[in-house]
Amino acid sequence: MSDRASTFDRSAHQPVPFWRDIRVLQAVAQVVFLVAVVVFGYVLINNLVTGLRESQLAINFNILTRPFGTRISEGQMDFNPGSSSNLQALMVGLRNTLRVVTVGLVGATVLGVFIGIARLSPNFLLRTVSISYIELFRNTPLLVQLYFIYRGMRLALPENLADSYRLPGSIYINRRAINFPLIAGTESAPVFYAAVVVGLTVGAALWIWRLRVQDRTGQPANTLYWFLPAFLGFSALGWIVSGGPFSIEYPELGNFNFSGGDRLSAEYTALTLGLILYTAAFIADIVRAGIQSVPYGQVEAARAQGFSGGQTLRLIVLPQALRLIIPPLGNQYLNLAKNSSLGIAIGFFDVYNVANVISNQTGQAVAVFVVMMGIYLGMSLTISAVMNALNYSMRLRSR
Amino acid sequence: MFEHARRAIYLGLALALLVALTLPFLPSSPALAQGGSILDDVLQRGVLNCGVNGQVPGFGYLNPDTGQWEGFDVDFCRALAAALFGEVTDSNINFIPTTTQERFTVLQTRQADVLFRNTTWTISRDGELGLDFGPTTYYDGQGLMVRADLGASSIEDLDGASICSLTGTTTELNVTEAMESRGLAYELVPFEQSSETISAFEEGRCDVLTSDQSQLAGLRSQAADPGSIVILPEVISKEPLGPVYLANDSAWGDVVNWTVFALIQAEEFGITSQNIDEFLTSDNPEILRFLGQGADTPSGSLIGLDNDFVVNVIRAVGNYGEIFERNLGPDTPLGLQRGLNRLWKDGGLLYAPPWR
């Protein structure tokens, strides 16, 4: 009895001293670590700022309002080299970057999915070609590929503009650019756009209605048969009412270059193509891994229920594979966006190239690079946010 | 929940206290604080880090046949090394090839002690980059190079042309102004590397390549068929090219400047790498003073170098004229005339202050 009582004797059990209390130790360790990080960061930044000031290079963001001074020939017309500011130049550069990135993302995804599926094809030729493609593009540096594509395209295409490859519809392809007709909306174009929007809305309503009918009656929905006539009908009506909403300007061969029409420069084409081909190889492998992660029993079950091969892939396998595909896919999208800065090597006027020019003309490397990091960070975080939202909407729903 | 919040508040307070206590004790001046002059650094190190262009024949490039650095700017680096160390060896000079983008950064970060890299002296660069410019070693002007089969004979014929240039240079700004002021349409294709610019021009991506005239001559000399390329007569800008170094370092600036002046003055006196020994015993006190010979004739010692540093420089690379002829003159592939780069007494712009 007395023995038992002694186990509860408070005097025999000193509280744990604070230097051995795990909670205190954890808190102290975190504080010390945080302080170390803050101090280290402060020293670095302070060092930079003081060093720059001493060498008369104090960081100065006012340079962004100065005139840029040189022309950006890529993808825009409303830029005046004499008076447009560095900030405007950065915006033009950003627009060029986004032109590459958006087309690149779509192209790489489409190509990557096709190659990833072909990689698993029972057809020997298709499978082997896909594997070779993936291994070739995944295992060589992107910069080398860009040079290869850019120089290769240049040497393969006609040098003399009069000998340009001519495609139907007044499209001319030569070493410098792809020239094609510029289609611009006339004054009555808004009428046509409105009609298209109405067509789309009515079509979508019909589409949803057909799906409801299918749910209720089990009849095939045949959504397209209802959607297309509505959409095309309204569009055609709009076209007639507006009396031809577009004017077309054809490229004409001038003294040195094609004038008129629109163009994709060789640099833009090479960079976009290079990014698509490179990133598609990685996406293909991600798609393959996603598809292979779906248990084969799912395929067998789908077949047993009478799904065709295409239906099995589209309705059973891919929706399940997507959950595994999306996170690594987001990484590839980020890579593509950031890799677009390699365009400077082949003379593409993207935001990085513009920033380099500003930095070199003003000597304000730190200010310019801070702005540039902000721009790339913004672009990457946007892509991340979209991919995270997509990922969230694709998650397994448990009830 | 309440417990967590309270702990977070305590943690935050502790952290703020610690930071507040630590900050006043941090060094306010950076670890990278500048000590003495670059001159002391270089002499102590025993190696001169010289920023050059790696891609322009005649001015600065690594000769693929010999594996040696060659060129006009490269020889100025060698002259400086000779002034500093008495002789030029493979181990006391380190050439740093730079692009137009990197050239000022390598100076600002002290990777290079001096830049001899066909760099134009402008007021904004001088005033804003934290750099100083030395005496002009080559008076250049910007030109335009076109393919002969285009039939262009002046800049007015270039309406609608595609122009290749190096990104972030004064040439880019000049050609923009030249075309805009004449109301000519054009496409500008900017490259980072000289080699890319040339191949783009040769392979027909552009009609025009614009750069300093001396560089155009060098590039033309390397083309497969130099006869198929024309350099237009217009000179659209002044391009004084010379050494660049960090600002506010007078001792180092003096050494760089007076090494350049020594090369010019030597030509004026007619002193070459061949005949220098004859001048060591000259009767002319001016020449003796220049060469730092004899007692009571301070020369190099005035700027912290060996008193006879001029002798070492001339022995190593010859005078200005010799450097020019060796790298750019009529007997070289570039075949340039002296033009503005003659001595003042021959009607040029080269002029060294008195050695007194």
Question: Gist?
Answer:
The complex is a heterodimer of chains A (399) and B (356). Helices cover 65% and strands 7% of the residues of chain A.
Can you put this structure into words, describing what you see?
The complex is a heterodimer of chains A (399) and B (356). Chain A has a domain at 86-154 and 266-393: MetI-like fold. The model of chain A has no long low-confidence stretch (mean pLDDT 87). The two termini of chain A are 55 Å apart. Chain A is of the alpha+beta class. Chain A contains twelve helices and eight strands. In chain A, the strands form three sheets. Chain A has a four-stranded antiparallel beta sheet. Chain A has helices spanning 2-7, 22-54, 86-118, 124-138, 142-156, 189-217, 223-242, 266-293, 296-304, 309-339, 351-362, 365-393; strands at 165-167, 171-173, 177-180, 182-185, 246-249, 252-253, 258-259, 262-265. In chain A, α5 packs across α8 (266-293), α6 (189-217) packs antiparallel against α7 (223-242) and α8 crosses α10. With 356 residues, chain B is an alpha/beta fold. Chain B folds into two domains: 38-139 and 240-346, D-Maltodextrin-Binding Protein, domain 2; 141-239, 3-Layer(aba) Sandwich (D-Maltodextrin-Binding Protein, domain 2). Chain B is 38% helix and 19% strand. Chain B is built from 13 helices and 13 strands. In chain B, α3 runs antiparallel to α12 (309-317). The radius of gyration of chain B is 25 Å and the shape is flat. Chain B starts with a helix and ends in a 29-residue tail after the last helix. The chains are: A alpha+beta (399), B alpha/beta (356). At the A-B interface, α2, α5 and α11 of A face α1, α4, α5, β9 and α6 of B.
